[in-house]
Amino acid sequence: MANIKDVAKLANVSVTTVSRVLNNRGYISQETKKSVQDAMNRLQYQPNEVARSLFRRQSYMIGLIIPAVSHPFFAKLTHFIEFYAHLQGYKIVLCNSLMESNKEKDYIEMLKRHQVDGIIMGSHTLEVEDYKEVRLPVVSFDRQIAPKIPYISSDNFTGGIIAAEHLIEKGCKKIAHISGSLALNVLANKRNDGFINTCRKKGLEYCVYETDINVLENDNYEDVINRLFREIPDVDGIFASSDIIAAKVMKKCSELGKRVPDEIKIVGYDDTDIAKYMVPGITTITQPIEAMAKYAVDYVVKQLDEELVPNETVLPVSLTARGTT
Amino acid sequence: MANIKDVAKLANVSVTTVSRVLNNRGYISQETKKSVQDAMNRLQYQPNEVARSLFRRQSYMIGLIIPAVSHPFFAKLTHFIEFYAHLQGYKIVLCNSLMESNKEKDYIEMLKRHQVDGIIMGSHTLEVEDYKEVRLPVVSFDRQIAPKIPYISSDNFTGGIIAAEHLIEKGCKKIAHISGSLALNVLANKRNDGFINTCRKKGLEYCVYETDINVLENDNYEDVINRLFREIPDVDGIFASSDIIAAKVMKKCSELGKRVPDEIKIVGYDDTDIAKYMVPGITTITQPIEAMAKYAVDYVVKQLDEELVPNETVLPVSLTARGTT
DNA sequence: TTGTATGCGTTATCAG
DNA sequence: CTGATAACGCATACAA
């Protein structure tokens, strides 16, 4: 690979001059500019971004730490994060934490050593103090880590309300929420608050079931769902905290011979593609994933530009009605 | 951020000595080693990997170019690629090409400028000559780009055969294949060859429908599916070239009142999660995605170690029978 | 066992 | 308008 020196030699100029045409900086005569460009082309010169990064102490890389890209929600989020990062000239270094806190910690260190310009944090197994030493711009997803770390989430509380209200409107009398682990310090748990609040207000019988911390172990979902149907055989409405759980519930209903939506109604969460694909389509709470991704990238970049960013950014959710209700 | 000089100063040694304890190289007394480590801890020193990369001309980064992580197949593939890369100390820079050839080209250049050690190529809109200038280790997914670029795929031809045979065994008399764009130069198209071969051999009526090049535009899928059912109303078996297409077919069947699998049978491809979630579960051709990911990473690393790698690596597929047949 | 000097490829400063 | 040089943070060859 040719470097700036080779170009300089071939064009009979100094490296400084080559650097100038490379960066369009300073005065330069048209002739030399052209001859330098010719040399670049002949050598197929590509500037070494590692050297540039070292010098300017900026890598144009953003680290993204999530539980797992294989999960549809994070796949979609990652997709848009990469998209908007690319628009602004940033690259994404992908890290799947698998919800293991030591992996999460290692990834943060690794990213720092690699001099990423910022980190988008969507996996949350660490404590607040673990973030003390991270002196990089961080944007958190779906969790309020510390006052100084801006977070982005959708309006989980309202999401829980909408879901519960929808089930109630549709005539459900005995509803359950299948929640993610409430032990986890994430804002998604506010869905449960919204759900419970609404049930209480309307004087409805309700119940909450928690899944494991692990986002990946789907087996655990099935255990929870089995338990739910065993303990509340006459449940007629389920609010599932992800479309995947909703799909699993649908499958169970089919096994049990419960007709959806006639005998039991289901509301999912996220509005990932699976909600559309299922037959019938899953009524779900739509998270504005693309907007969330865009904000995450913007906030990293803005912090780098030393612009002020809001600490809390809560984007609206909405109900997307389909066949399960 | 403290650098090696700061550590040296605090420990009252030279940077060389610090470098030595950092890399466990050369002779060093226990005392100085300890005092250097103390200094490192006190300063929370983290080596700057950008500087290291510049020096050793190796970044431990691998570029991954795919059409879109949001697609379940690529999400799963990406997940495992990152997993195995991390095991070997490599980082993944994620690039979604959206199947736009200029984006694909730009990403390749960008990755080279950033001095990635290798590229895993899962998006294929470019011509062979576009790869002439890529002087990096490349591993291609599902396409034979050039003799010198090793590729990994699963046995698409056999996949097509298995799918067709399964539909025929199950009693289908008039079957169709919904294929990806056959204009694309990818090995997935061999599924179609296997399908057609089998149908001919068994003397069965068959038909092939192609979708667009674009993996993302699902609207197009629906058009194709609509056309299929309009033109062959009595089709009783469909081989869909992805689980997503299969799911869309199921939805259409539900709209048309066609009972699956009684009136029409469906075989998908990939065995992504959606095949499990759908009700009934989708009978599908299982690709060994994890193994494919592992091989891709291994081959990049082996090329870097100047080990020989096979040009063609075709992994076996298998049928996973579920409810749609 | 430890230190000095040099270079990795680039950019900024400053002098011409 | 152009060029020599130092510096970014680190690791190696070579001295001591």
Describe this structure in words.
The structure is a homodimer of 325-residue chains. By secondary structure, chain A is an alpha/beta fold. Helices cover 44% and strands 18% of the residues of chain A. In chain A, strands 2-1-3-4-5-11 form a six-stranded parallel sheet, sandwiched between helices. A six-stranded mixed sheet of chain A has the order 7-6-8-9-10-12, sandwiched between helices. In chain A, helix 1 (4-11) crosses helix 2 (15-23), helix 1 packs across helix 3 (30-43) and helix 7 (156-169) packs parallel to helix 8 (190-201). The longest helix of chain A is centred in the first third of the chain and has 16 residues, at 72-87. The radius of gyration of chain A is 25 Å and the shape is elongated. The termini of chain A are far apart. In chain A, 49% of the residues are buried. At the A-B interface, helix 4, helix 5, strand 2, helix 6 and helix 10 of A face helix 4, helix 5, strand 2, helix 6 and helix 10 of B. Chain A binds a DNA duplex (16 and 16 nucleotides) through residues 3-5, 13-17, 19-20, 22-23, 25-29, 32, 47-57.
SSE topology sketch:
2 copies of one chain form a homodimer.
Chain A: H1 4-11, H2 15-23, H3 30-43, H4 49-56, E1 61-66, H5 72-87, E2 91-96, H6 101-113, E3 118-121, E4 138-141, E5 151-154, H7 156-169, E6 174-179, H8 190-201, E7 205-210, H9 218-231, E8 237-240, H10 243-256, E9 265-270, H11 273-277, E10 283-286, H12 289-304, E11 312-315, E12 318-320
Parallel strand pairs in A: 1-2, 1-3, 3-4, 4-5, 5-11, 6-7, 6-8, 8-9, 9-10
Antiparallel strand pairs in A: 10-12
Helix pairs in contact in A: 1-2, 1-3, 5-12, 7-8, 9-10
Chain A binds a DNA duplex (16 and 16 nucleotides) through helix 2 and helix 4.
